[in-house]
Amino acid sequence: MSLTNATPLEVARAARLGSRQLAVLPVQARNDALTAIHDALAAGKDDILAANHRDLTAATKAAEGGQLSQSLVKRLDLGKKGKFEDMLQGILDVRGLEDPNGKVQQKLLLDDGLILERKSCPIGVLLIIFEARPEVIANIASLAIKSGNAAILKGGKESTESFKTISSLISNALAKTQVPQDCLQLVQTHDVIGELLKLDQYIDLVIPRGGNKLVVTIKNSTSIPVLGHADGLCSIYVRHDSPVDVAVKVIVDSKTSYPAACNAVETLLVDADALETTLPKVAEALLAEGVSLRCDGQSKTALTSKLDQHNAAMIQDATEEDFRTEFLDLTLAVKTIPATSNAGEALDLAIAHINEHSSHHTDAILTQSESMARRFQAGVDSSSVYWNASTRFADGQRYGFGTEVGISTNKIHSRGPVGLDGLMIYKWLIDGTGQVTKDYGSGGTRQFKHQQIPVGHEVAEGMARNAEELELLKNFRAQGPNGHS
Amino acid sequence: MSLTNATPLEVARAARLGSRQLAVLPVQARNDALTAIHDALAAGKDDILAANHRDLTAATKAAEGGQLSQSLVKRLDLGKKGKFEDMLQGILDVRGLEDPNGKVQQKLLLDDGLILERKSCPIGVLLIIFEARPEVIANIASLAIKSGNAAILKGGKESTESFKTISSLISNALAKTQVPQDCLQLVQTHDVIGELLKLDQYIDLVIPRGGNKLVVTIKNSTSIPVLGHADGLCSIYVRHDSPVDVAVKVIVDSKTSYPAACNAVETLLVDADALETTLPKVAEALLAEGVSLRCDGQSKTALTSKLDQHNAAMIQDATEEDFRTEFLDLTLAVKTIPATSNAGEALDLAIAHINEHSSHHTDAILTQSESMARRFQAGVDSSSVYWNASTRFADGQRYGFGTEVGISTNKIHSRGPVGLDGLMIYKWLIDGTGQVTKDYGSGGTRQFKHQQIPVGHEVAEGMARNAEELELLKNFRAQGPNGHS
After folding, report:
1. CB 3.0–4.6 Å: which of A253, B77, B128, B167 could bond A390 by disulfide?
2. Domain ranges of chain A
3. Which GO molecular function, any one, fits this protein according to its record (chains A, B) (predicted)?
4. Nearest chain B CA: its distance from A135 CA (Å)
């Protein structure tokens, strides 16, 4: 880790060079580096918390002056119960993950003694731009080293003191490992993001960790691929045949268990047939949790006739804009899906509404019908599409990834919650014995065999081969430089 | 297929809407559309060739006036022996490929009755920008329909007449199939590329098919992901222990079998120990094929002393720029890798040269040593890295994909030759029975199981389940809307 005032170009070039060394380090060396980082941060706890306290003091002052939000101040605090220990445990969790590097994904016999392999490898150099939370530095450092990627980190200025302390501890720790220090660079110079975003010859992937504004700004100012999501406008479509208790439970969890999360529900679509049966129970439960409901005409009419006076008075009118809004708060927009002559038509209206309004993050259907659920899952163009489950399951930990790089609404590479695999790409390797393409063309003497060779997801050091292949290769290698045995 | 003069916004919106219908069509409907296109083009052969003749006449005239290159005129000609039939066969070949859509890639039991699946699906809307070759329209139309993606096509103005005829034939053919016509749009309006490249809310992936200039211009003017490669600067590193006959054969094939191809070799790195043994034989063979050699000082000295007078006189001096040049011609730059105290150091110098100078496309090592080859394959940061084989194997047909979308030097999504898989992404599906996240948090009553369920790459219509799962789901579905059986 270098805490650097170097120019963006120097930073990016050094990271690129370091990345090539890191990419070929065995997993043991990468894991040893994670152990060293863990131990250094554990030993430096008092220094880190003291530095974090300085950041907090400044931020609290700024918040009192109205320049910073209270929620940002909260996110800055590393001293909160369990947060520091969670950060340390996170490093060990990443260390414990299976090595994503060097996995043989496909293997094909092109011809005798000519084998094609697709093998996983690191992407190269990541640029991580994040706001506030100082524990991200340890998290990203772990993910980068484990996956064999170099990383350039640029944090928010609110956490400068914490970053300085954490990064010099990590830097000293790395110096005693095989991981080149240039593989992790913390940029503290101001106003360098614009320059870094231009360096597509050195930087392969940008990962913004922050709010909508940060992500949108970055996406619009670089031709480097950006992994992430700007919005999380999630919807639930509750059909008339859904059990009421399931609807109540799933919708309340999706809205209230963490309203500020990107996977919280923002829009509820309700079958017209369910307006007087399911919806009132759902509304009562949501109102009891303090949720504001913004309803279209039909659902408002139904609710005001069914709810008691107090609750009925709390129902607000929805505007068209409400169905395009990520509230990130205890507010839910409610829209009626009109009754149609057949069940599929109503479903298609709900799908069309979601594809037009949602942010392609996570959407759910509540129904007893498997055929309707399958049509919904195929038709909704979102990264996660659920049947009878809370939208809040969209999360790397819950998906069993062990750790989460972020959530992506991209249409290429990685979609939905992204684990360590999202930091990997592959390369194509051919092992030949002197073959040339001319022999396989028209008038050539050879034909491609294109036989799939089954692979486990083993790390292939020197590739498993059958006896025939081994013999062929042995003979080939026994030749001298003059071409004869 | 609409041959359209609509605005870019209208085109992109229509393609997006069409894409959602196409995405859920069964493979039989997509294959039927390919049959219809094939038959329509076969029946319309005379009309197409007449239109192509009009393009050719205009282009030949322009070429005589110096406004167009002769090679572009050649690429325009659909009447060349076998080209039309190849185009038709290409459609049937794509039809015959396995359906890439709806493959279950991962399956995980999150908890009882809570199953997570990762399933392949189309990306959405592709924008294909191409130069000259009119057969690309049939090729791209086939790939898009087979993979379930909508496509907007913008061709070069040289082939306008061919495109008009081909696209109206395809349009009429599609009208009788289940594939919405809006899924394939040929834009003939001028100067719309800039507008289309801004429409990232509708267009998911840009695929340029053309020269370096086209690709670079597009990459620099859009935040939509671009799949492709600008350059193909490929290298071969020949080590002293490589059999001479292998070196001659592989290098001659890599350079001369199609010098204008992106996978042709442009730089030869030679061990100092091989300058007087292997290199002269390689040089003789290349010179005999008309290749110009641009050599660094050491390799030139060695060659001029070893070659006969005539050949020696043909050796030119290399400039530093030659090692950064994609000649696309019968020219090869030659660089010496100095002798070092151990074999690995020389290897690392070659790897460092390639990582710094090559375009990360395809690079090869010629050696008898497996350990050196493995280090080279791990260390070189290119999409294809070969041991003892011609760089010209980097090709979708040769890799057994059946068809090729293009060759990518991107570091995310698809790398190297790209088959139909490169047009696919995935979505995450959860099938639940009313689960909520609150039950799995601290203080919750449930624990995630995260059990991998083995999957074949079967198309899962209604997912295979075990008996226990089926029972659980049956019971759940038997409940009425009031939550009781």
Report:
1. A253
2. 2-219, 234-402
3. glutamate-5-semialdehyde dehydrogenase activity
4. 21
Percent of chain A beyond pLDDT 70? 93
- Confidence (pLDDT) at A410: 94
Is B431 at the interface with chain A, CB within 8 A? yes
Strands laid side by side in the B292-295 sheet: A451-452, A104-111, A114-122, A424-435, B384-389, B362-366, B234-238, B265-271, B331-337, B292-295, B316-317
Query: Is the CB of residue B425 less than 8 Å away from at least one CB of chain A?
Result: yes
Residue B16 backbone zone (phi > 0: left; psi -120 to 50: alpha; other: beta):
alpha
Architecture of the structural domain at A234-402: 3-Layer(aba) Sandwich (3.40)
Residues of A in contact with B20 (CB under 8 A): 351, 355, 379, 381
Residues of chain A found within 8 Å of residue B253, distances taken between Cβ atoms:
436-438
What order do you get walking across the sheet with A150-154 strand by strand?
Answer: A2-4, A184-187, A150-154, A125-130, A205-209
Distance between CA A153 and CA A188 in Å, rounded? 9
Q: Within 13 A of A349's CA, how many CA atoms are on the CB side?
A: 17
Do the Cβ atoms of A90 and A142 come closer than 8 Å?
yes
pLDDT digits (tens, 9 = 90+) for A45-89: 999 999 999 999 999 999 898 888 887 888 889 988 889 999 999
Q: Which two tokens stand for residue A132?
A: 């506030």
Residue B130 — pLDDT band, cuts 50, 70, 90? Answer: confident
From chain B residues 450-469, the ones with a CB under 8 A of any chain A CB are: 450, 462
Range in A94-103, A354-363, B68-77, B94-103 with the lowest mean pLDDT: B68-77
CB atoms within 10 A of CB A264: 27
Q: Is A24 on the interface with B (CB under 8 A)?
A: yes
Residue B83 at interface with chain A, using a CB cutoff of 8 Å: no
CATH number of B234-403: 3.40.50.10350, 3.40.50.2300, 3.40.309.10, 3.10.310.10?
3.40.309.10
pLDDT band at A479 (very low <50, low <70, confident <90, very high): low
* Pair A204, A122: CB distance under 8 Å: no
**Is B190 at the interface with chain A, CB within 8 A?**
no
- pLDDT reported for residue A472: 58
Average pLDDT over residues A19-40: 97
Residues 6+ apart with CB under 8 A from B201: none
CB atoms within 10 A of CB B441: 12
Residues of chain B neighbouring A353 (CB-CB closer than 8 A)? none
Q: In terms of CATH, what superfamily is A2-219?
A: Aldehyde Dehydrogenase; Chain A, domain 1 (3.40.605.10)
Chain B: residue whose CA lies nearest to A216: B223
Question: How high is the mean pLDDT of chain B?
Answer: 91
pLDDT of residue B468: 56
What confidence tier does B474 reach under pLDDT thresholds 50, 70, 90?
Answer: low
B242 touches chain A (CB under 8 A): yes
Neighbours of B246 (CB within 10 A): 25
